[in-house]
Amino acid sequence: MTTRAGFIALIGEPNAGKSTLLNRMVGAKVSIVTHKVQTTRARIRGVAIEGESQLVFVDTPGLFKPRRRLDRAMVAAAWGGAADADIVVLLVEAHRGITEGVERILDGLEEVTRGRKVALAINKIDRVKSEALLGLTQDLNERYDFSETFMISAEKGHGVDALRSWLASGLPEGPWLYPEDQIADLPMRMIAAEMTREKLTLRLHQELPYQLTVETENWEERKDGSAKIDQIIYVMRDGHKGIVLGKKGETVKAVSKAAREELEEFLGRRVHLFLQVKVRPNWLEEAERYSEMGLDFKDGN
Fold this sequence. Notes:
The chain is α/β, with parallel strands linked by helices. The chain is about 35% helix and about 25% strand. β4, α3 (about 100-115) and β5 (about 115-125) form a beta-alpha-beta unit. The longest helix has 18 residues, at about 250-265.
């Protein structure tokens, strides 16, 4: 019996559907999915099994034009994920087509992938007519020599099985890299922090979500089988603290409840979640915060 295993990098612009595709492939929620761009900060890996193949997905931050140190570190992490992978999948949104951002990614692909297989996945196909899809497919394949092209809807699952089968057959032969029952190699503390950050992102608007981070400070296993989790939400200003707390603490209570319920479902047991909000004006410039997110502080220079 020949087993295969390898790393697959999902790359694309912010909001192209990488996290949704990863969650669909793995069959569990390991990467946060929100309507806001640039929500994936760390290179989250999800693990899927297809026949005798183990597919390890690297969900990279969206590739965009960086402005701040955090942005630069995220973009470096995205290209780093592509450079380290056995197969790269470029996601392009069907209804947006070849944007300036897609142009930039196409320009950088050759250098980063160095002859490895790159598949094109045109996502959100339900949003456009088939003639437009064919035109877009042709244009993209003229710009880059893709190994294969897939038409998918990550949200609805269309075309995802065909993509997964192709990826499974294209990975190098070798032993599996992770235990069979493991779906993500992120520490649970980090997944828990990401879940809380997702709930904050959904509740809050404008720029604030990018100026906060969540860290799991303490994780205690209780004798009754439940887990007590203490998390800190770091914000940059006192005014932000008030927004996160909300009137009479209503916002943070709602976030805590939603995050706790999702964590309980994910872990299959009771969770006691305690959130604190702290002002830390320079967290975007602290190396420690970056390593918590799986990013390299130096890449932000």
